[in-house]
């Protein structure tokens, strides 16, 4: 059905009867806004209003549906056309509704899928973890600005729901794939009663002096371990690289976990992810220094 045509016809017949939109609306117990919408072709009146509206406008149902006056000799033909048109409109509406329903079902499935992934990730995220700060994070950018050697500082955040007594750092050194040393380099003692189960660790690498500075910062203060030697004759190595844990990593209490691997070489270095170093330990560089951590 042509809503615009029907709307104009309603307006024409209303004026013919000398009625305003408000007066017509009052006769139908409706608002003049509803009449305005009909006449602008936005929508049709409710089916329950058809007969009363046609009576007020002095038109037949067929004329109303056709949106024009119908001569008596063609009224039967027009009635058939209106019935056919209504049938077509109904089929089109059903097709449209089916498309809408299918679209809503697809959207619902996608929503459930995304929500399920979010919930799954939330539930599987470690509650006790250590993770690196992203290179572009405000913390890393600030730390690099404060450092004498931008790029040689690494920041980590840890969160422990479980109480722990101490946080120990270990240094393991390899030369051409052979382990040459493995030692405990510093221990930071924890007081769970003061809420120090969450904190940040900063590793400051001084390549020229071949030393490390380790800072453990938490809610109540911080500890610093300075000038930890990790390599001799560093000038012999002209290439260096480092790897660190790449994402939120579960804390394995009372067990050493690799945190950072520093690699040096005379010509090139092979950079391996921490996970691969932990599982395969394929350390082939001229020199590799691995920093591990243990929550006791």
TrEMBL record:
Organism: Faecalibacillus intestinalis
Domain HTH cro/C1-type: 10-64
GO molecular function list: DNA binding
PROSITE patterns, A to Z: HTH_CROC1 (PS50943)
Name of this protein: Transcriptional regulator
Keyword terms: DNA-binding, Membrane, Transmembrane, Transmembrane helix
A Pfam entry, by short name: HTH_3
SMART domains, per the entry: HTH_XRE
Keyword set includes Membrane: yes
Database matches in InterPro entries: Cro/C1-type_HTH, Lambda_DNA-bd_dom_sf
Membrane-spanning ranges: 100-120
Database matches in PANTHER family: DNA-BIDING PHAGE PROTEIN, TRACRIPTIONAL REGULATORY PROTEIN-RELATED-RELATED
